[in-house]
Specification:
Layout lengths: L3 E4 L4 H11 L3 H9 L5 H8 L15 H13 L3 E6 L3 H17 L5 E4 L12 H9 L2 E7 L6 H9 L3 E5 L13 E3 L15 H15 L5 H4 L2 H10 L6 H16 L3 H9 L8 H18 L3 H8 L3 H34 L2 H5 L3 E4 L8 H11 L4 E7 L2 E7 L6 H6 L7 E4 L3 E6 L4 H15 L8 E4 L1 E2 L7 H8 L13 E8 L4 E3 L3 E8 L2 E7 L6 H4 L5 E12 L2 E13 L2
Parallel strand pairs: 1-12, 2-3, 2-4, 4-5, 5-6, 7-8, 13-14, 17-19
Antiparallel strand pairs: 8-9, 9-11, 10-11, 14-16, 14-18, 15-16, 16-17, 18-19
Helix pairs in contact: 1-2, 4-8, 5-8, 5-10, 5-14, 8-10, 10-11, 10-13, 12-15, 13-15, 14-15, 15-17
Amino acid sequence: MEKRWTILPEQKLETAQLIDSLKISAPLCTILAQRGFSNFDLAKNFFRPSLQALHSPWLMKDMEKAVSRIIAATTNKEKILVFGDYDVDGTTSVASFYQFLSSIYDKDFLDFYIPHRYKEGYGVSKIGIDFAAANNFTLIVCLDCGIKSVELIGYAKSLGIDFVICDHHLPGNILPDASAILNPKQSDCNYPFKDLCGCGIGFKLMMALTEELGLDESYYLQYLDLVAIAIAADIVSMSGENRILAYFGLEKINSNPSLGIKTLIKLGSLEKKLTIHNVVFVIAPRVNAAGRMDDAKKAVQLFIEQDEETSLLLGEQLQSDNTDRKEADSSITEEALAIINESEELKNKKSNVLYRENWHKGVVGIVASRVIEHYYKPTIVLTKSDGIVTGSARSVKGFNLYEAIYECKSLLTVFGGHFAAAGLSMLPENVEAFTNKFEEVVSSIITDDLLTPEIVIDTVVELKELTESFYNILCQMEPFGPDNMRPVFMLKNVVDSGYSALLKDKHIKFSIRQGNYSISGIAFNMLEKFHVVKSKQPFDIVFTLDENEWNGNKKLQLMVIDCRVSE
């Protein structure tokens, strides 16, 4: 699949000032300036995050109300239920807040609740509220969901159950009748940072409660490792407070992780220092798999467990769920791609809507993303559950998927989501009509450039600039994520040194030169570009920079994303 290369514009004045004040290489200063760190002080604060730079939790709308309601509950010996979503953000939110409450309140008056993905669906559930009522809970602290549960929270109130909501999703026009709503995205909330995840908002509530009760800051800081996992897995902005929380959370993961996280690290065979990349691709899938394949409650149990033997048993259950998830994901992806490969009509469409009754509901979102890697167009993968066709949708960069699905709403029973991803349900008899309507809507809006994947390049470099010192400073820009992505570089007019080769008939081992300098690299699944390397012509290469360690020796290597013959 050919890709568009887009080189970001330089901020020349700011870059020059940074070169003068920081005394580091021009490409790194170029990137800092592009990302808004345009003077010495801003750059210093970026490279040296500080917990003291976190905003006061009291700036968040309703924080006083939330703290007062929770303290009143503990004073009056009310039963408190900690409720959260079944994904990584939800389970880490519940695990951290439940443990925090356990440290300041009698465990006999506490419990936690995670809705079952298939029996209850996303967010606050009637089954969950009925559980609370049957067990005499009078306060539910709801994390990573609840902002749109107007009717259900009204129902809970009629049963004498109050809610404190900690949510980061966009509020609707009508807010639930809760005792307190903590959500920086509320239009009248003046909290300076709007992109906290659910676990991050729970963290701010723990911070406020700690201050109000005059406790040591360790009461809430001990959960930074869980917050970092939530930030990584929920793919929220890696800027502002999130970057600070993720930075110190990673420090804790690498120095003194909680037992549950230590178990996941062991099961993931992670021996080196963990990065956000490891968290996203090794830890998060194991946590998410619990909710995708079975019951996410066991993920919370793992995070709160204090016994090593029990922790390992719970971790192995998550490992097993993740193995099942990978098998389902792999086989369904294969089937989905085969459907397209065998149909010229589907290949020529500008959208993919793929449906099989027997596909596993828990992995259809992952499969949609996998299909996009091969056929780059808005994709919906559907399956059947309890007589209803349900599925997940994923978009390509720059295309508003939610708006396209909204245009098809007359054919749907339920839908929800945002710009890049959505969920939807329909009656089986509407699948064909929906498929045609969705294609009609996408075709009328999407432009050809959006159907070609884009590689955003931060800056062009010379091979002689890629030194150990350069790489060490680059590493200090971590943790990487949205709004602070791992820098992507471009080298122009490089040549094969004669040692580039194919590995396993699909990966390319690069060995390249530029002038008197040489370097090696690796590109996975790029067989179709091997002719560029062996063309005996100069070529351009797009890559991220990494370090390879072999037998105790470290050397820089390129992680190649794409290459093409130089113009």
